[in-house]
Amino acid sequence: MSLLTDTAGAHAPRKTSETAPRGPRESRLSVIAATGFLAVVAVYMLLPVFWLIVSATKSQGDLVDSFGLWFSDFHLFDNLRALFAKQDGVYLPWLLNSLLYAGAGAAVGTLLSAMAGYALAKYRFRGRELLFNVVLGGVLVPATALALPLFLLFAEVDATDTFWSVFLPSIVSPFGVYLSRIFAAASVPDELLEAARIDGSGELRTFFTMSLRLMSPAMVTIFLFQFVVIWNNFLLPLVMLQNDRLYPVTLGLFTWQSQVSRDPSLQILSLTGSLVSVVPIVIAFLVLQRYWKAGLAAGAVKS
Q1: Residue 116: CB partners within 8 Å, gap ≥ 6?
Q2: Mean pLDDT, 10 residues at a time, over the chain (303 residues)?
Q3: Which long-range contacts (CB under 8 A, 24 or more apart) does 293-297 make?
Q4: What is the pLDDT of residue 26?
Q5: 95: number of Cβ within 10 Å
Q6: Closest CA to 97 of 31, 27, 170, 46
């Protein structure tokens, strides 16, 4: 009996890794095609950045006479010195204004969006869905359509050509409220809030000590989104501001570029200023990118 069993076991097929079913394998041609397509897209996206870097290293003469997509004589440091010295160093206040508008505006806007989205997700009150639908409608309204009404509102209170005329509209983010509500509903358990209430924690204390940590990945995303939107904002400062010392860097560089026909040296300064203006955005993304993939549990226990 044991001999028959051993013989049957010897001839029985064994399930090894070699006979295990395998998933469909991608053809080599499809991999090459996908890689080639992504490479073309990457070149298309990075080519303007490369052109800006190359152009900022040239003199005004080389910018006109040399090949646009390759380097010539290196004049980047000379261009930087001329950039920060032009018009009594007006470029530095422009850059600081943009950092203030974008940094403070994104921080305040992120906090307000998180509070509004959290309230819409975790509290039940009459008209909640109607209010949320109004917020969704605000996402669809282009910023260009709001510039003139905002100007008229600020003109009524004599607040145009001030810091607040650019800062206050920048802290409103319907998209941030929408994202905060979706994220709060998924990441903040109702049982956690009930436990906090039973322990005697107030609503504000619960929000700032627990809920914000759970919502931190969404808040980083909202902050970066708001920072880039405010930094690139052009129409609102154009409508609101007349004092060039209050200009953000986008509006300041536009005024220089519009005067190139009278002063050709402003062309290379505008390009150099554009390159410098990209640096804060790159730094913000590099510093905050590690938080994008932070899990909800990591956000909850992070001190």
Answers
A1: 135, 177, 180, 181
A2: 45 49 68 92 92 91 84 90 93 96 95 94 91 88 87 93 94 92 90 90 91 89 92 93 93 93 90 94 85 48 40
A3: 293/217, 294/216, 294/217, 294/220, 295/217, 296/187, 296/214, 296/217
A4: 65
A5: 19
A6: 170
d(CA 99, CA 72): 32
Taking the whole predicted model, whether its pTM rises above 0.70 is answered as yes
Helix (H, G, I), strand (E, B) or coil at 261: coil
Q: What is d(CA 183, CA 173) in angstroms, rounded to the nearest whole number?
A: 15
Residue 184: CA count within 13 A, CB half-sphere: 23
Q: Which phi and psi (to 5°) does residue 8 adopt?
A: -65, -40
Angle (CA) 22-26-28 rounded to 5° is: 130
Backbone angles phi and psi of 2, in degrees to 5: -70, -30
What is the rounded CA–CA span in Å between residue 296 and residue 303? Answer: 14
**Which residues, including other chains, have CB under 8 Å from residue 17's CB and lie 6 or more apart?**
none
Among residues 173, 191, 169, 193, the alpha carbon closest in space to that of 181 is found at 173
Cα(253)–Cα(256) distance, integer angstroms: 5
DSSP string, 86-117: TTTTTHHHHHHHHHHHHHHHHHHHHHHHHHHH
Find all residues with CB under 8 Å of 39, minimum gap 6, and list them: none
Cβ neighbour number for residue 110 with a 10 Å cutoff: 24
Distance of CA 220 to the CA centre of its chain: 9
What is the secondary structure of 13-25 as a DSSP string? PP--TTTS--PPP
Q: In sequence order, which residues have a C-beta less than 8 Å from that of residue 251 and are 6 or more positions away?
A: 94, 234, 237, 238, 241
